[in-house]
Amino acid sequence: GYTGEDGFEIMFDSSHAPAIWAMLIEAGATQCGLGARDALRLEAGLMLHGVDMTVENNPYEAGLRWTVRPNRPEYLMGEVLRKIRDAGTPQKIAGFEMRSRGIARHGHAISIDGEGVGVVTSGSHSPTLGSAIAMGYIDIQHAELGTAVQIDVRGKTVEAEVVPMPFYPHSY
Description:
There is one protein chain. By secondary structure, this protein is of the alpha+beta class. It has one domain: Aminomethyltransferase beta-barrel domains (Elongation Factor Tu (Ef-tu), domain 3). It contains 3 helices and 6 strands. The protein has helices at 17-26, 34-43, 78-87, and strands at residues 91-98, 109-112, 115-126, 131-139, 148-153, 156-163. The protein has a 6-stranded antiparallel barrel with strand order 1-4-3-2-5-6. Strand 5 and strand 6 (156-163) form a beta hairpin. It is flat, with a radius of gyration of 19 Å.
């Protein structure tokens, strides 16, 4: 699945769902919800289309430089991507770990000393790290690892720090 973890996705006709569910539970599978999947996705630093990246983002600011080959003559939008690459981007995707209590969510403002410098795209409690984490876009000049930021969580200022993604090591 889309979690960064080893696993399986099983596809079948919905009429078989009750029987397959019963077999999985009987075999020892543990139930979990979408919140668990989303926390694992975030811990792995995997972006969700429409949330962490949209058609408004380019591959350079989204950390997806490795997915494009703008110098190949047959590459669609190569000239546009070369211009973006050469000019640099004003923002980039970054990881954040909360240093005070609070969970940042999509759309929450990121600031430094009261000046807006970015926006959160995803946030959750990280069961693996035991702290709250988030990803979002931050102005490039403030994206250095270790930079202290503040995130507005429903009117409360939460201290956070720019940290590397993925948030924990993986083996894939």
